[in-house]
Amino acid sequence: MTTIRLKAAALVYGLLAAAAVAWGIFKGDPDIFHHPAGLMGNHYMLIVLGGAAGVAFGLGMARLTSFTVYRFRWARGLHIEFRGLFGPLRNMDILAFAAFSAIAEEMFFRGALQSQIGIVPASLIFGVLHIAPSKKFIPWPFQALGMGFAFGLLFWMSGNLAAPILAHFTINYQNLHFINSYDPSLQLPRSFASGLDSNRR
């Protein structure tokens, strides 16, 4: 089942990446990997620094996600829904899903769309396309909207897609590992468990 989902993801995200390249060619600017008005230049050291900033941001956001799952019921509900959606994942599955989504989505929403229509419309579209039919997923598009703005700012500030791609990949990779390993129905949130331990003393 996971292999089928991986093949489907590879196809969908491959088409999205191809659409991003086609968009750039159609608009007369095939270089979708560099922001036309980025704050930083294209020197390789600046690209490395931007990428490092993206990884650091991604790690921070992944940490925040686990904190909300441990502390808030709505976040645990969303976490449980994602566990049911993805099912058990191998490390290579997580790596593939994280890479496919990060590269293709950043190429399209930041590299192609944001460069042409601006950060606000591109982020709004990014958020809207994360709306799911189940009301249990209601927080997800709002989270995607916020991340759309964050990735857009990383793209603008660094001047290239390395920073948002690495930030996006890090968040997805860390969160998928967390979704795969933590079952709220079997394990108490850390804050609650800590409270029980303190009451026993």
Molecular structure report:
The N and C termini lie far apart (47 Å). The model is unreliable at 192-201 (pLDDT under 50). The longest helix has 28 residues, at 44-71. The protein has one domain (46-187). It is built from 8 helices and no strands. The chain has helices at residues 2-26, 44-71, 73-86, 91-117, 119-128, 139-158, 162-181, 190-200. The relative contact order is 0.18. With 201 residues, the protein is mainly α. Helix content is 77%, strand content 0%.
- Span between N and C termini? 47 Å
Q: Helix fraction?
A: over 70%
Q: What proportion of the residues form beta strands (DSSP E)?
A: under 5%
Q: Please describe the biggest sheet, giving its number of strands, its sense, and whether it closes into a barrel.
A: none
Task: State the helix count.
Answer: 8
Count the E strands: 0
Low-confidence stretches: 192-201
List the helices and strands in order: HHHHHHHH
Number of individual domains = 1
Principal-axis shape equals globular
What's the alpha carbon Rg, rounded to whole Å? 18 Å
Structural class by secondary-structure content: mainly alpha
Short description:
By secondary structure, this protein is an all-alpha fold. Helix content is 77%, strand content 0%.
Key traits:
globular, mainly alpha
How is this fold's topology laid out?
Layout: H1 2-26, H2 44-71, H3 73-86, H4 91-117, H5 119-128, H6 139-158, H7 162-181, H8 190-200
Helix pairs in contact: 1-4, 2-3, 2-7, 4-5, 4-6, 4-7, 5-6, 6-7
